[in-house]
Amino acid sequence: MSEGAGANLKEGGLHAPLRHPLDWKNPDFYDEEKLDAELRRVFDICHGCRRCFNLCESFPTLFDLIDESQSGELDTVQSEGFKEVADNCTLCDLCFMTKCPYVPPHEFDLDFPHLMLRYKAVEQKKGETSWISGQLSETDRNGKIASVAPGLVNWANHRDNKYTRPILEKVAGIDSRTEIPQFHGKTFLLRAQDEKIVINTTAPAYGRKAVLYATCFVNYNNPDLGMTARRLLAHFGIETEVVYPGCCGMPQFEQGRLPQVATSAQGISEAMKPWIDLGYDIVALVPSCALMMKFEWPLLLPENGTIQKLAESTLDLSEYIMTLQKSEGLPAPVNAISDPVTLHIACHARAQNMGRKAEEMLKLIPEIQLNVIERCSGHGGTWGFMKEHYEVALKVGKPVAQEALKYQPAVVTSECPLAATHIAQGLEVLEPSQGLMPTQHPLEILARAYGVL
């Protein structure tokens, strides 16, 4: 949200907090003395409040750093210690959106995630980030390469592979126990070109049109989800086109590579503009990508009208289905699903401030037994893959796994595919005999209820 959009907001209200545009083109943004002064101002406020202590590893790291210093206050903490605090921030935005009482319009004007982003951007500018992490963040390029020989790549990435995974851990830092998503040779884009979709002309929403922004993950790692989305939306009367101009830039954003993200935002928004002009809604299939398009890109390039227009036209997948339900209406599901389902509300779905749309969507299904968990899974994008973070990622996600285990679900689901798998791995740690529990996207469960999967 831009600065001016919420000029009438008051502290303590129920509105989304304000967020200022990122001043990343200003040389002061990279001035280390000014950054250190701002870190100390914000950290002092956080240390005095501690409301966010249980959200992630950043805040316990910060509080321990200060508590264990000579004076027990920030004045005796060396700035070198701030790096670990920033490294443990995965930009989930939950502190900003759900906990912090000092976000704008409060006079303290505190935005912890974007301050950590600034820290990472300074590291990038100084060339202090690892070459390997930069390569791992190139998800679009890596997907293209892997799709050439997916069988070989999936064999090498399999966590039971005792030959390749130790090498991958040593060379790339990816923990050998991490479940890595599989790759596919026939991407979502290719499948969409080959499969003719029949649109339900009797559905209430017939006549609406949507572009599905494929995203790196769905295009290369889970094209079945994309095809299921097309079929289900066709059942709802929606004509869809699949468009994938490139990665939204979230993996680079997490590393502070802001010029690269801005370039991606400009390219994708230009590619989407003709579709918006033709009356298509833009639907992002992964919450992190929707968050980038709706909120982070406009803050990076607030002067860019094409990006602003795309942000206003973009909806998260679950949000889009519930919009259809409330505007035109949906056909009735044909199947009840009585298996217990544990639904995790993804952090980047929460950060979009749109309500728990996945829960609303699944409650359309007759007889569904739903256990909803709204807590950090601990994964945090590529952060949770890494050897140095894997154990912490499991620790942060352990309460989610414990809550899920009590419910004994038949399936674990989350709009965030990495979070769902991470929760399943947490369950496997708690109950090794059960192995890795299957996961599904909430849309796939809804598609079962409509008989299209």
From TrEMBL:
Record domain Cysteine-rich: where: 211-294, 341-418
Record-given protein name: Anaerobic glycerol-3-phosphate dehydrogenase subunit C
SUPFAM superfamilies: 4Fe-4S ferredoxins
Record key words, sorted: 4Fe-4S, Iron, Iron-sulfur, Metal-binding, Repeat
Organism (species): Candidatus Bealeia paramacronuclearis
InterPro entries: 4Fe4S_Fe_S_CS (IPR017900), Cys_rich_dom (IPR004017)
Keyword Repeat recorded: yes
Pfam families reported in the protein's UniProt record: CCG
